[in-house]
Amino acid sequence: MKKYSEDMIREAVDISIGDDGFRSNEVIEILEHLEKVASKRTTATEKFLSLPPFDNAVNQSKVDRAQSKDDYYMSLQD
Predict the structure, then answer these.
(1) How far apart, in whole angstroms, are the C-alpha atoms of residue 62 and residue 71?
(2) What is the helix (H) or strand (E) element at residue 59, kind and residue range?
(3) Within 13 Å, how many C-alpha atoms sit on residue 36's CB side?
(4) Which helix (H) or strand (E) holds 65?
(5) Domain range annotation of the chain
(6) How far apart are CA 76 and CA 5, in angstroms?
(7) Distance between alpha carbon 46 and the CA centroid of its chain, in Å?
(8) What span, in angstroms and rounded, lies between the C-alpha atoms of 30 and 50?
(9) I need a labelling partner for 67 at 20 to 30 A (CA). Which of 5, 12, 38, 59 fits?
């Protein structure tokens, strides 16, 4: 995947819409927010996947597992 610097993104946005920098700043803020959300999802997914599978022999509580699952889905909604 190609990656572009913030300066390149700002310049491209400013040129494409003939702006003085206001919209390019918005674009950068949106990209930063999307990156933060993606990072949270990755962290939450890794945490969820690291949980041991439900096993009656281990006597893991169904409530504990359900709570972890709820935490995972709630973290995706932020």
Answers:
(1) 14
(2) none
(3) 8
(4) helix 62-77
(5) 6-77
(6) 27
(7) 12
(8) 30
(9) 38
